[in-house]
Amino acid sequence: MKILVVEDEPGMLDNMVRSLEEEKYVVETAATYEAATEKIHLYKYDCILLDIGLPDGNGLTLLEELKKQDATLGVIIVSAKNAVDDKVAGLNLGADDYLPKPFHMAELHARVKSVLRRRKFEGNRLLELNNLTVDPDERTVCVNDVQLALNRKEYDILLYFLSNRNRLVSKTALGEHVWGDQIDEADSFDFIYSQIKNLRKKLKEHGAQLEIQAIYGIGYKVQAT
Asked: Residues in domain OmpR/PhoB-type (predicted)?
């Protein structure tokens, strides 16, 4: 899962990023309104942690823009402002949750997981497709109740496919989502092909009833078999 943290306080930003990365999220950051605006127009995210008090703009204005662009995007307002008016305004503009500072990182993780379940997994704790079950909280994948040994990227690719089942996923979108904006520095998509090849092999060996279809020149599509 890919998260954008919009926060201008360096110490808080660093703590949030390190904590989220320990939970195996792909994390990108923006410390200003301008940088955040650029990010959301270039990349797709599963969840955005948004500070209201940015040095060059209002986070609520950014929230309004985010929801116009993608009404299904999960947004959690993370702000030192704990006024009722700010909270109500944020929720009315489409924010999923409001977390006042200071907070424990364990609470942040719980709020993020809750938003992702609602927005990406239809409120379910587990993702299931025929005989395959994924537990996003535990980061486990089972076929017929037998756990697969997937590396981090193989798991992230599979989770992204299942979150977009029956949809065409472009190679660029997949790369950005699993590797973050570092994908811009890549010369080719060979590393993606390699991970998908290994993932297909493991799924086939365990008898998973799904197919990762390659759409020549465009990307991939996952369907039940």
From this structure: 124-224
